[in-house]
């Protein structure tokens, strides 16, 4: 293997092994449901807020670890209290992070709220629509990411948004959409969704890609390559779950407007 090829695929082994571990843990929590699934969601969202807090910290900022713990505690409180009014608490970690000195306050506020909405969305979708909708979401995000990864490296070509995400190509982006269509078709043929999944799946994949780009922009402003080094081959929790965040928030918004064509009615 040439030096260029080795650099291009050098992270593949670590990336694959880490992905298998994450899939195993996620699958077990999803199958168990209830507090097992909620605990995993709280852990991931708390970690994402910790990473965001680290990347935007200034002298005098609320400690990043405290932000992560606060985010997890607020999600837990929202679950316990329930009701529409309780969802207003999701703003608390975002607001707490910007009352003290903070780099890019508006960016922190928006992304912290996105993380909290993602956690809330995953828990409520699992409870209200069953396992199928979470499996579909994860499949769309994972397949579009894998298709984009390989197409971007094998085909290359023009960059999708070079100023924000210099590695993302149009070939990888479109491959991700096509992969999402295949996922939608698979769920439809398996009797787990309607024909609307054929257009909704690539739309969700695109929302995920925008979530990925948003996180890339935050890292570039912070001068960071990865959000942290917690996950070998993937970086941090934000690096791994940024696309899922964009996808989940879109699906939750749609679920409030129209019946989802997947999962329980």
From TrEMBL:
Q: Membrane topology for this entry?
A: Multi-pass membrane protein
Its domain of life reads Bacteria
Can you state which reaction this protein catalyses? a 1,2-diacyl-sn-glycero-3-phosphate + CTP + H(+) = a CDP-1,2-diacyl-sn-glycerol + diphosphate
| One Pfam family recorded for the sequence | CTP_transf_1
E.C. designation(s): 2.7.7.41
Compartment(s) of residence: Cell membrane
BP terms from Gene Ontology: CDP-diacylglycerol biosynthetic process
Protein keywords: Cell membrane, Lipid biosynthesis, Lipid metabolism, Membrane, Nucleotidyltransferase, Phospholipid biosynthesis, Phospholipid metabolism, Transferase, Transmembrane, Transmembrane helix
Q: In which pathway does it act?
A: Phospholipid metabolism; CDP-diacylglycerol biosynthesis; CDP-diacylglycerol from sn-glycerol 3-phosphate: step 3/3; Lipid metabolism
State the Gene Ontology terms under molecular function. Answer: phosphatidate cytidylyltransferase activity
Q: Name one GO cellular component term.
A: plasma membrane
Give the main location: membrane
The regions listed as transmembrane in this protein's record are 20-50, 70-99, 106-125, 131-151, 172-190, 243-262
Similarity comment: Belongs to the CDS family.
Official protein name in the record:
Phosphatidate cytidylyltransferase
Organism of origin: Gemmobacter aquatilis
């Amino acid at each position: 293997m040439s030096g260029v090829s080795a650099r291009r695929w050098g992270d593949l082994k670590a990336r694959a092994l880490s992905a298998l571990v994450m899939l195993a843990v996620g699958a077990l929590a999803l199958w168990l449901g209830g507090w097992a699934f909620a605990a995993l969601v709280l852990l991931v969202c708390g970690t994402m807020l910790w990473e965001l807090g680290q990347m935007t910290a200034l002298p005098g900022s609320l400690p990043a670890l405290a932000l992560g713990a606060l985010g997890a505690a607020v999600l837990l409180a929202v679950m316990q209290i329930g009701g529409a009014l309780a969802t207003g608490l999701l703003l608390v970690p975002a607001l707490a992070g910007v009352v003290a000195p903070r780099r890019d306050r508006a960016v922190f506020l928006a992304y912290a709220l996105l993380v909290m909405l993602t956690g809330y969305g995953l828990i409520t979708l699992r409870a209200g629509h069953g396992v199928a909708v979470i499996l579909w979401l994860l499949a769309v995000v994972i397949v579009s990411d894998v298709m984009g990864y390989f197409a971007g490296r094998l085909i290359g070509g023009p960059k999708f948004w070079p100023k924000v995400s210099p590695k993302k190509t149009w070939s990888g982006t479109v491959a991700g959409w096509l992969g999402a269509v295949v996922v939608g078709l698979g769920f439809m043929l398996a009797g787990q969704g309607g024909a609307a999944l054929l257009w909704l799946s690539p739309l969700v994949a695109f929302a995920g890609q925008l979530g990925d780009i948003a996180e890339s922009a935050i890292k570039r402003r912070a001068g960071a390559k990865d959000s942290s080094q917690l996950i070998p081959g993937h970086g941090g929790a934000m690096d791994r779950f940024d696309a899922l965040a964009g996808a989940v928030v879109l699906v939750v918004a749609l679920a409030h407007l129209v019946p989802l064509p997947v999962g329980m009615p």
